[in-house]
Structure formats: C-alpha cells, structure tokens
Design a protein that fits this description.
heterodimer; A: 516 residues; alpha+beta; five-stranded mixed sheet; rod-shaped; B: 233 residues; five-stranded parallel sheet; four-stranded antiparallel sheet; 41% helix
C-alpha cells in the first residue's frame, strides 16, 4: 500500500473524478452538438464545473475548469477540432467559466472546512466528555492519572503517560522516571521546553520535532504541574493538527482535575496536621491528669506509711499498702495503653499472625482480668468446631482485655458478660456483650475515637478509662484485616463485635496421631 | 540446717534492686547484687549462686549475651526479668538456656514462686527420674503406666497428647517455649509448626480442664509458650 500513499494524500481520486466528469460532459456535448446551440453547450460545461467544484477541493476544480475550457474550445467553438478561436466573444465565455470554477472552489472549500471543523469539534467534545465523566467518578490522583492515560492514549493513537512535577520529588527536571521513553535526550529536552513554554513539543509539532513522543504540558493556573507524553504506536504514524488539538484539550481537562486533587490532598494534609496537633494537646492534658491522680495517692500512702507507721493501726497500714498496689496497677494499665496507642498510631503494629484457637487468647485475657472480672459473671460460648484463626495472640488478647475491662467497668456488679464467637463466611465473628445501660445513640462511632468517654463514664468512678481502649481495639482489629463495631447499643446492654478474617499462610496438617 | 540459698541479682535499676533485695532477704534468701553485666558475670564464678535473676536491659551488655555467657560455664537456674513487649527477647533467652522469666512489673508472690520452682528443679540431679506419680489438683498422672486420671476417672489421651503433657510435667512450674515443646514432642524438624502444638494443647485442655477457656493447670504464656501450674505458681 505504501507506494500509493502519496497519491491518496494528494486526493488523486478527486482529480480522476474531475477529469471523468469533464470527459462525460464533452461526450454528451459532442453527441448533442447538432441539436444544441453553442450557448447551451457552454451551460453544460458550466454545470460540470459546478458539480466538480461542489465535490472537490480547489485543485481538481481548477483542473476541471481549465479542461472544460480546452474541451469547449476544441470540440465546440468553430472551427471544430482546433484551438483557434475566430469569434473573440468566446473569450468572455472562457473567462466566465474560469471565474465560476474559482468561486465554486472557494465556496465549497469553505463549506468543507466548516464541516470538518464541526466534525472535529464534535469528536473533541465527545472525547472530552468521556474523559470528564470518568474523571468525575475517580477518587485519588492515581486513579485519575490512569484514566487520563487511557483516554489520551486512545484518542491520540499511542501510548500515553503522565509525569507530575510534585511526584518527581524535587520538581527538578534532573529526575526522570526509569521508563524507557524518558531515557531519550530529545524527549527530555522537549518535555522541559513544553513545561517552560506552556506549549506542546516533540512529535507532530514544530518544536523539538525529532523527539519520539508528543509532550503536552499539564497547564493549570498558568503554570505547568507536569507533562503528558504520547508515544506513537508506530514510528511512521503522522499526527494531524486536529488530533493534536484533541489531545491538548484532553490534557488541559486532565490538568484541571489533577490540580484540584493535588490541592485537596494538600488541604487534607494540613487538616490532619492540625488534628494531630490538637490530639497531642489533648493527650498531654489527659496524661497529666490520669497519671497525676494515681501518683498522688501512691505518694500520700507511701509517705504516711514511712512517717506515721507507729501511729497507724495494722489495718490502716494494710489498706494503704493496698491503695499503693491498686494505683500502681492502674498506672501500669494506663502506660501500657498509651504505648499500644502509639504503636497503633504510628502503624508500628508488627502483627505476627499464627493460626491458633481463639480460646487460647480469650483464656489468657480472662486469667489476666480474673480479679477485675470477679464482680461479674462471664459466660463464654465458643463452639468446639470453631476454626483456628490467624492472629497475633498478644494483640487479640489485648482486644479481649480492653472489651472485657470496659464491660466490667461500665455495667452494674453481678450482671453477665457474654463472649461468643462463630464462623461467618470467611471470617470468625466475635461478640462481647454486656447487660449494662448500653451506649447512648449517636455515640456508636465516637466511642472508637481517641480520648472519647461516654456520658456513662461516671459509673466507672475514679477508675475511669483512658479513652484509648476502643481506639486500640479498632487499630488492632484493622491490622488483622477485620472490622470492629458496636452491634447493639441500647436495650439489653452493649454488644461489640469484631471480625477476624480466615486468611493467612496455609496450614500443614499435624502428623498422624493414633487414638490412645 | 542448710544455709539459706544464695540468689545473684543482676539489675541496673537501684530502686528495683532495693525492692528485690528487701523482699528476698525477708523471705530468708541470701542476696548478692550487681549493677552491671561485667560485675554479675564475675560473681557467677566467684560466689557460685543457686539462682540468678538477670535483667535483660543492662547498660553495659546485651542481657541475651550475658545469659549465653553464664550457660557456657554454669547450670545455675536463670530467671530473666524483662519489660512487657519484649516477648521476642524472652523467648530468645529461654531458648538460650534461661529457665524462666518475670515480666515487670511483677508482684512478690510471683517472684517467690519462680525462685522456689527454679531451686526445686536445680535440686534434682540431672537425669534423675521424677516421682512415678505426679499430682496437681484433681489431676493424677502415673508416669510409669502412662495413665492420666481426673479425680477417679481415667482420661484417655492420644500418644501425642500424653507426650505433650509429660513434657509439661517434666518442667512443672516453669515456662516452656513453643520451640522447646515442639522439639521434645514432635522432634527437631517441627520446631516452627506452632499450630500443631496449639491444636494439641486445646485438645488436652478439653480433656483435662474443667473450663478450657479458663485453664487452671495448662497455662498459656502469651507469645512465649506454656506453663504447667502445679499449685506453686
């Protein structure tokens, strides 16, 4: 096909058609020459020129008009079959034919351009619309970039990629992606030029045309936030101006979207920083209060044991020693909670999952809380056929401890706390339910936030929680790929549920064990 | 009357040393203190203590190193003192030859129980056969006939369950790491298959414990291993 390409590019078909139409007109004229006046013949040729002019570009219609003048002169102006013209009036006819051809050509060319313009606009609008529609549904810069890459690649007929300045780290052109295309110096030069001048460069443009790809700057708010590259599918593909304009329109649309997202990210970052600053302050004030209270009891009890031991009855001395012990334990719990919180917060929770029966982690928690749970009835309902779960026993034990401690703290003495578990799909669901006053409606989510204490906090008296327990639980459960939520908040008491997905490295079956 | 047993305390925190010394002396132990690994190691050789309390967070040397160094020359029981969250170090120390551990903060009764168990185990000459019948609470294990009774009823254990129980009884009162148990019961190739151990442990609890979620005898030491509680601990 290649050798014929230039023919098609010149619109050779149109010339052939033009010559054909004039040839047909000449033949018809020759047949009818005896019956028609020469002015009618001239009209026929004029019609042919108009038809050609309507169908073709300027070139073919000029050819048609010259050919028809020649044919008219040769075949119909006496003397026949010579180019001699005896009657000078015919030169006027020739002139009119030529002028008509010119005007027609001009008119059709303009109409054609308008049609092509409209078609191009339509095409560009459709491409833009498709891109905009999909970008609107995308969340996050990565998703938006991949959508833009796909659309620009499809429209431009090549492989597109997006290079965002802020992703390059220092915003310097010295750091290019390790991606074949940008190894080329020409591409780098074109990309830099495009960003600096805010205009396309490279393949299909007048700047740095030797580059292997088209580089369109991502312009937003008057500055370049990056560059889009479009690599042609094959080296001999030609990018038309129309195609380039469409690609540029898509890039402009993408740039606006990217900038919005980047700005939003910046705002979110700033908001998080403010939030974490606020939390630090809250943490400090909460800490100083929660640590100072037990410390003052300890100091008071210990100093009076030291100074007044003679004056105190054995019973009082015993009581003071117990107070010291209780308060130290409370401080230990608080400090442990804080340390866990820091680990959850910093994502430093190294979860070491091992398949194990849930019973074991629960057992450890129950043993550890034996004293504190002595005031309540604790029922456990773990089915014997509950599958093993892949968990970090120390962490899940902590979840049980926090949930059980809360249940014991916020519910009246003598009530029942029930721990149950069952398999639900590809996860084990665990529930810790109490029979206390429940949790106020509207607090279902807030209780999982740091330092949040429910209005029932008074029930817990001076031994109130740090407001960290549930936040830690959520962090730990999330680190296991599960979810924790308040299943029931009022009525028959509060019920917390969490899931532990049954996903992990496969298990080898234990070696066979003969029954005894 | 035999002289009171000598305890070597290697701990850098002065307040912690003060508390430990006072407590141990009040319960008729002799105590030697050292504030650093170097000093402690010298006293292991010089004073020949019967129990060593070793803090893992010493300023001059890694506690694990010290444990290894002591084991090179002495079989004296080592009880490791460590903070919460150092489970990995505890396991390493135990696998290196330490006998037991205490997580700070701990109470007096815990401390004394660990020291007593350590002394009891070291009093047995190596290779001595244990009592033919072992008793703890309602549990009675006839180690010669390989029979296990709960009260008057015989509990039927599979060979693996029995081997596991026997291993725990051999170390009664002391913590045994997952690795140690797996090696003793299944063999060296299974040292990392801790889920075998957990499966059999659960089965043992269901056969021997009144309430398997609240074990009284077969205690989990989270992140470390198991302990057979024989009334002392």
């Amino acid at each position: 096909m290649k050798p014929f390409r230039w023919i098609r590019r010149l619109g050779a078909n149109e010339y052939v058609t033009a010559v054909g139409i004039i040839a047909v007109t000449t033949s018809v004229g020759l047949v009818l020459r005896a019956h028609l006046k020469i002015t009618d013949i001239a009209m026929l040729f004029l019609l042919a020129v108009v038809i050609v002019g309507y169908r073709s570009r300027r070139g073919p219609s000029l050819v048609a008009s010259l050919l028809s003048i020649a044919a008219f002169d040769f075949g119909f102006v006496p003397p026949y079959y010579t180019f001699d013209v005896h009657d000078k009036a015919y030169f006027l006819t020739f002139g009119v034919m030529f002028a008509v051809a010119l005007v027609m050509a001009q008119l059709t060319a303009r109409i054609r351009e308008q049609i092509e313009d409209a078609r191009e606009r339509e095409h560009r609008t459709a491409a833009l619309l498709a891109l905009t529609r999909e970008l609107a549904g995308a969340e996050g810069l990565d998703a938006q970039v991949s959508i833009a890459v796909r659309h620009i690649g499809l429209t431009g007929g090549g492989k597109a990629s997006v290079l965002l300045d802020h992703l390059r780290g220092d915003g310097q052109a010295s750091r290019w992606p390790e991606d074949g295309l940008f190894d080329s110096v020409a591409v780098r030069v074109a990309a830099t030029w495009a960003c600096d001048h805010g205009e396309s460069a490279g393949w299909g443009t007048n700047h740095c045309a030797e580059a292997e790809a088209l580089l369109v700057p991502l312009q937003s708010s008057g500055r370049s936030i990056g560059v889009v590259s479009l690599e042609p599918e094959s080296p001999d593909r030609v990018l038309s101006l129309t195609e380039r304009r469409t690609v540029e329109a898509l890039v402009a649309q993408a740039a606006a979207t990217f900038e919005r997202t980047i700005l939003a990210q910046g705002r979110e970052q700033a908001r998080l920083e403010v939030e974490s600053e606020r939390l630090r302050t809250a943490l400090l004030s909460s800490l100083s209060h929660d640590l100072r209270t037990p410390l003052s009891s300890i100091e008071g009890a210990a100093s009076s044991l030291l100074q007044d031991s003679g004056a105190l009855s054995d019973e009082v001395q015993q009581e003071m020693a117990e107070a010291i012990l209780q308060e130290s334990r409370r401080m230990t719990r608080l400090v442990n909670n804080l340390l866990d919180m820091v680990r959850v917060e910093t994502g430093d929770l190294a979860v070491q999952k091992e398949w194990q029966p849930l019973e074991e982690a629960l057992g450890v928690a129950l043993l550890r809380l034996e004293e504190r749970l002595a005031t309540h009835r604790v029922e456990t309902r773990l089915p014997r056929d509950l599958p093993m779960v892949p968990i970090d026993e120390l962490l899940i034990e902590q979840v049980f401890i926090n949930l059980l401690e809360n249940a014991a703290k916020y519910t009246p003495k003598g009530t029942t706390i029930r721990v149950s578990a069952w398999q639900g799909g590809d996860a084990v669901v665990v529930e810790v339910a109490d029979a206390g006053p429940g949790i106020p409606t509207g607090d279902e989510e807030a209780i999982f936030r740091k330092f949040h204490r429910t209005s029932h906090v008074d029930q817990a008296g001076p031994a109130g929680g740090s407001g960290l327990g549930l936040t830690i639980c959520r962090g730990i459960v999330a680190a296991h790929g599960g979810r924790i939520w308040l299943e029931r908040h009022e009525g028959a008491g509060a019920a917390f549920r969490f899931t532990l997905p049954l996903q992990g490295p496969p298990l080898g079956a234990p070696p066979a064990d003969a029954a005894a | 009357m035999a002289p009171p047993p000598l305890v070597l305390l290697i701990e850098d925190e002065p307040q912690m040393r003060r508390f430990l010394c006072a407590t141990l002396r009040a319960h008729d132990y002799q105590v030697v203190e050292s504030a650093s690994a170097r000093e402690g190691l010298a006293q292991v050789a010089g004073r020949n203590p019967e129990v060593i309390l070793l803090d893992l967070g010493l300023p001059d040397r890694d506690g694990l190193e010290v444990a290894r160094e002591i084991r090179r020359s002495s079989r004296t029981p080592i009880i490791v003192l460590s903070a919460r969250g150092q489970e990995h170090d505890k396991v390493s120390a135990l696998d290196l030859g330490a006998d037991d551990y205490l997580t700070k903060p701990f109470g007096v009764s815990e401390l004394l129980a660990r020291v007593r168990v350590a002394l009891r185990h070291s009093a047995l000459p190596p290779g001595a056969s244990p009592e033919p019948v072992f008793k703890a609470g309602a549990l009675r294990v006839d180690l010669v006939r390989r029979q296990v009774f709960r009260g008057d009823e015989e509990a039927h254990l599979t060979p693996t369950e029995y081997k596991l129980l026997a291993a725990l009884i051999r170390h009664a009162g002391r913590v045994v790491t997952h690795r140690q148990l797996l090696q003793e019961v299944w063999g060296p190739n299974y040292a990392d298959q801790s889920h075998y151990l957990r499966v059999y442990m659960a089965q043992l609890r269901h056969k021997l414990e009144e309430d398997p979620t609240r074990p009284r005898l077969l205690i989990t030491e989270p992140g470390v291993g198991y302990r057979f509680r024989d009334g002392e601990v």
